[in-house]
Fold this sequence. Notes:
This protein is mostly helical. 44% of the residues lie in helices and 8% in strands.
Amino acid sequence: MNEQQKRSHSLFFCFFCEEKLDKIPEEYIVTLPCCGIICHKKELFQWFLKHAKCPNCKATVPTFQEQILAWGENRKKKR
C-alpha cells in the first residue's frame, strides 16, 4: 500500500481496529490534530490510558490526552 492509499484508507477506517467509519455517529469518532488519523474515541481513550503520544506520529498531545480522559470519566458518571 503506497502513501496515498494509506491516507485514503485512514479517512474511512479506524486507525486501531480498521472498522469502516462512514456509518458511525460523529460523536463516537475523533481525529487527532497532530497527524489527522481518525479512530473511535473509545479506542483512543484506551490508548491514552497507557501512552502520552500519538499512536501514529508519536507527537506528544497532552491537551488532547486530557480531553479524551475527561470524555471517559464523563461516560463513567453517566452509567
